[in-house]
Amino acid sequence: MELSFPNNAHAIAKTLHEFDMDIRSLDEDDSHRLLQRLADFSECVTVTMLGCGVLQVSVLLLLPCLVALQSCPSGGIPGMPGIPGSPGLDGRHGPKGEKGDPGKTGLHGPAVGQKGEKGDPGERGKMGKMGRSGVPGPAGTPGLPGPLGEPGEGGGAVGVSAFTVRRRSELRPERGEPISFPTALTNTNDHFNLQTSKFECQISGTYYFAYHASSASRNLCVNLMLDGVTLAGFCDHLVNNNPQQVSSGGLAVYVKKGQRVWLETDGSNGMFVKSGQGDSVFSGFLFSF
Hints:
7% of the residues lie in helices and 30% in strands. The chain is mainly beta. The strands form four sheets. Strands 6-5-14-9-12 form a five-stranded antiparallel β-sheet, with no helix packed on it. β7 and β8 form a beta hairpin. It is rod-shaped and about 200 Å long.
């Protein structure tokens, strides 16, 4: 069925606005109310019923037209609502937001955690630099004596110096000269020179020198000399006209290597013996280095 209404475009627009322009969502009662309102307008509005409760509206402002109302070919009951469609795709990521404020400082954890299990030994490292020498330790106890060494080559005794020389003469010694002792009874390392009758020191140390002299018919004074300096003098004088006497003397003295020691007399030079009636001897030996 078609109806013609007065032309009034402004009233049509207002009416459509009241129905929110969403004509496709109107039910059948709302559609009839809309048609009653549109009947008051003089402009031509075409309204077509497309199925049950669905309207199609077109407004023609320039040309007159008719309003057609077509009822639903069947008066059936509206169908059930359709199944909801599947969810749409996710939209695009929005722009990155601004950096937020720093959060509050959390509570401090324990200062030291629980002790873990002992790990495997690591590889041996490189040898470090040699350290400084330490303080010398105390002397240890003496060790046991070692075995005897093999016999060495022959030679003079080392660190030994000793001599004993003899005089047997009817000649009196010269005053102020070394007394001659031509015969060596002991002369280790030949430190006593029989040619000069002087002991020539080869090892510095303390020596003990002694003499025993036989005299007859005269007084006897014997001086022990060191490089021309008198170290000590010993004298023996006749007593009760005894023609044969023996005098002796001795002392210890430090002698350096290269120095010389000998005996000599002064004016009292009664050192005299007949053959087979006595000897005079001069001895010396090193006893301390």
